[in-house]
């Protein structure tokens, strides 16, 4: 089975909880899954001013990844909050340090998927798709959420998610992710791991 990495950046804990759900789904396929976070590059003063310093303590026990670590996995799920329709500056900073991996072709063919969280729902799709540009430059095999889970189509409640990837809407009510968003994240984790497992058995 594949060895997978769920890599996330979270300010307030919502993306972290989505990462746990993605990992849960991936592990259900028999894959080996590590959960790591990217190193925060915003100062403690900046985090405090944004109200994130205290909330980040809930996942401070999660180890921090280095860019070189990505080469050790058969697939990577990337999770980020949205920042004006784009990935967080911390996630972008991390990805901007993967030039050596790109030069070596170290991520070519590896299964990749993207998930995240937004404050209002706005920018969730553009954030995910903008992440795809970087993954495409690395030659990764992009696995979208699609509509494989019928709960994605439901309009019975306010929830994040699109065929591009699952998100949670943090201001739609607490706690987040909602049960539906959690289930969708588990489903996306399963779908991503299924592709990664097949690629690990028969690499491109």
Protein traits:
34% helix, 204 residues, single chain, alpha/beta, seven-stranded mixed sheet, 7 strands
Average pLDDT, rounded to a whole number, is 91
- Given the C-alpha coordinates, what overall shape results? globular
Number of strands: 7
Write down the Rg. 16 Å
Number of helices: 6
N- and C-termini, Cα separation: 16 Å
**Level of helix content?**
25-40%
Which spans have pLDDT < 50 for at least 5 consecutive residues? Answer: none
Summarize the biggest pleated sheet: 7 strands, mixed
Architecture overview:
- The protein is an alpha/beta fold and 204 residues long.
- Helix content is 34%, strand content 18%.
- It contains six helices and seven strands, in the order βαβαββααβαββα.
- The chain has helices spanning 14-27, 44-49, 89-95, 99-104, 124-137, 179-201, and strands at 3-8, 32-37, 75-83, 86-87, 111-118, 141-142, 167-169.
- Strands 1, 2, 3, 4, 5, 6 and 7 form a seven-stranded mixed beta sheet that branches.
- Helix 1 (14-27) packs across helix 6.
- The model has no long low-confidence stretch (mean pLDDT 91).
């Amino acid at each position: 089975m594949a060895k997978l990495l769920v890599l996330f950046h979270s300010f307030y804990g919502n993306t972290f909880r989505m990462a746990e759900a993605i990992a849960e789904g991936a592990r259900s396929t028999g894959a080996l899954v590590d959960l790591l976070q990217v190193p925060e590059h915003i100062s403690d003063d900046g985090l405090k001013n944004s109200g994130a310093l205290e909330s980040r303590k809930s996942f401070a026990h999660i180890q921090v990844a280095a860019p070189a670590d990505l080469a050790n996995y058969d697939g990577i799920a990337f999770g980020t909050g949205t920042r004006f329709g784009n990935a967080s500056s911390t996630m972008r900073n991390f990805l901007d340090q993967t030039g050596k991996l790109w030069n070596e072709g170290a991520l070519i063919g590896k299964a990749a998927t993207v998930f995240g969280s937004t404050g209002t729902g706005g920018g969730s799709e553009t954030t995910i798709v903008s992440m795809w540009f970087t993954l495409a430059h690395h030659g990764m095999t992009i696995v979208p959420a699609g509509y494989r889970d019928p709960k994605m189509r439901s309009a019975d409640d306010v929830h994040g998610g699109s065929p591009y990837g699952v998100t949670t809407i943090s201001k739609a009510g607490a706690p987040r992710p909602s049960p539906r968003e959690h289930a969708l994240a588990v489903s996306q984790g399963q779908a991503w791991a299924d592709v990664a497992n097949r690629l690990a058995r028969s690499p491109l």
